């Protein structure tokens, strides 16, 4: 009787383990793709989607990506800050004694070379964070398209491939502004022409000089305010072309300015409030961890945590901003309560300081995740309203 029974998955025909593994992998892929096709996004393409941004940003893989990008940006900033301080004539010992391992305040270099290096470090750090926002954006885009399996590593690799497009988009706008400034310099030289210089400048003052200046100011405004949506435009462009990301950024900010400003303000405000709530739970978690581990470790645990807290710049403005609910509201988290006496300054204190630093890092990772998520939601909503292009009807990039 058993000879007439047909197994739905005839693994017994595959005596080679390699062939059997290939079959199992193929069946798993078929199941996964079928599952992808059944997943439907519930986007409404209106304000109801924006309200859910803080919750949508609270995903470990998105917080992880944002935290890693912030850490990389901080490393870049500190390297360039140290180089600036060295160029300014400071010794390595004095730099470490005055600024520690992580300079936590903005510098004001006096030498021209120091300024160039310092501001270059700031620009590169900002670019690293924007690249991280690109990785966060592709996770949401793939989710909208029905792909629930886009992981952090896959998103980071995508952002790395699109780094050139993001860089060229920002560079193109910057070069355009620089070109207009150069033209303004040349136009100013016209006034130095004897007799006719003032007349020529006055005749052409309104057109084309003023009109070109007006367009340039608009470009600068879009660049300064819309730079946070550029990663979303880069991630949403399937072709990977620089012009498409620039056009998407300008179209979003210029054609739907009130809607974009409203969505952006909401994401920024909720990023601050939700970041504070997350920081509060992190603070309470640290207190709970300290209390329960002291039951077994006693005062030694207390000394370890105290020593780690002693290395942190808790008086820093960024820490104060993180610990406050909102500027002007006197409701803060006192992270200094985690510390105290006694302390030691051996290697374990620095390791503990790094561990506590990672707590602040994921707090800001969540804040950046909210901002990036808010921008990609705003981008797909406004693009749908503007062009009728629904991201939920697109095929996933990764399968």
Detailed description of the structure:
Helix 6 packs across helix 11 (230-236), helix 12 (242-255) crosses helix 13 (257-297) and helix 14 (299-310) packs across helix 16. The model is unreliable at 1-9 (pLDDT under 50). This protein is 73% helix and 0% strand. By secondary structure, the chain is an all-alpha fold. The longest helix has 41 residues, at 257-297. The chain has 16 helices and no strands. It has helices spanning 17-38, 47-51, 53-57, 60-87, 92-99, 112-144, 152-161, 163-190, 197-203, 205-226, 230-236, 242-255, 257-297, 299-310, 317-323, 347-387. It is globular.
N-C termini distance: 42 Å
Order of H and E elements: HHHHHHHHHHHHHHHH
Q: Structural class of the secondary elements?
A: mainly alpha
The general outline is: globular
The low-confidence parts are 1-9
Q: What helical percentage do the residues reach?
A: over 70%
Query: In total, how many beta strands?
Result: 0
Number of helices: 16
Please summarize the sheet with the most strands.
Answer: none
Compute the CA-based radius of gyration: 27 Å
Amount of beta strand? under 5%
Overall mean pLDDT score? Answer: 86
Outline of this structure?
The chain is mainly α and 399 residues long. It is built from 16 helices and no strands. It has helices spanning 17-38, 47-51, 53-57, 60-87, 92-99, 112-144, 152-161, 163-190, 197-203, 205-226, 230-236, 242-255, 257-297, 299-310, 317-323, 347-387.
């Amino acid at each position: 009787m058993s000879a007439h029974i047909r197994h739905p998955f005839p693994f017994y025909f595959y005596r080679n383990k390699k062939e059997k593994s290939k079959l199992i992998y193929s069946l798993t892929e078929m199941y996964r793709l079928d599952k992808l096709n059944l997943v439907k996004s519930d986007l409404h393409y209106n304000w109801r989607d924006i309200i859910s941004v803080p919750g949508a940003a609270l995903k470990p893989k998105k917080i992880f990506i944002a935290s890693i990008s912030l850490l990389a940006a901080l490393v870049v900033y500190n390297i360039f800050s140290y180089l600036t301080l060295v160029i300014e004539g400071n010794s390595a010992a004095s730099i470490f004694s005055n600024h520690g391992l992580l300079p936590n305040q903005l510098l004001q270099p006096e030498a021209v070379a120091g300024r160039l290096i310092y501001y270059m470090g700031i620009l590169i750090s900002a670019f690293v964070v924007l690249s991280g926002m690109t990785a966060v954006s592709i996770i949401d885009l793939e989710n909208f398209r029905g792909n629930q399996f886009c992981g952090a590593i896959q998103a980071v690799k995508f952002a790395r491939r699109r780094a050139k497009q993001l860089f060229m988009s920002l560079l193109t706008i910057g070069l355009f502004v620089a070109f207009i400034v150069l033209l303004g310099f040349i136009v100013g030289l016209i006034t130095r022409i004897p007799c006719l210089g003032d007349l020529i400048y006055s005749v052409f003052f309104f057109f084309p000089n003023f009109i070109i200046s007006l367009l340039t100011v608009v470009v600068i405004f879009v660049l300064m305010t819309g730079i946070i949506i550029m990663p979303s435009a880069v991630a949403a462009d399937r072709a990977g072309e620089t012009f498409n990301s620039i056009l998407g950024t300008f179209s979003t900010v210029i054609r739907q300015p009130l809607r974009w400003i409203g969505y952006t303000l909401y994401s920024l405000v909720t990023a601050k409030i939700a970041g504070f709530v997350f920081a509060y739970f992190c603070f309470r978690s640290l207190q709970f961890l300290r209390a329960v581990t002291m039951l077994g470790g006693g005062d030694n645990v207390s000394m370890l945590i105290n020593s780690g807290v002693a290395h942190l710049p808790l008086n820093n403005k960024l820490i104060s901003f993180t610990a406050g609910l909102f500027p002007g509201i006197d409701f803060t988290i006192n992270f200094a309560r985690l510390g105290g006496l006694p302390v030691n300054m051996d290697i374990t204190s620095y390791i503990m300081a790094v561990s506590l630093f990672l707590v602040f890092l994921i707090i800001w990772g969540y804040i950046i995740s909210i901002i990036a998520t808010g921008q990609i939601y705003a981008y797909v909503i406004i693009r749908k309203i503007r062009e009728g292009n629904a991201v939920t009807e697109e095929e996933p990039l990764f399968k």
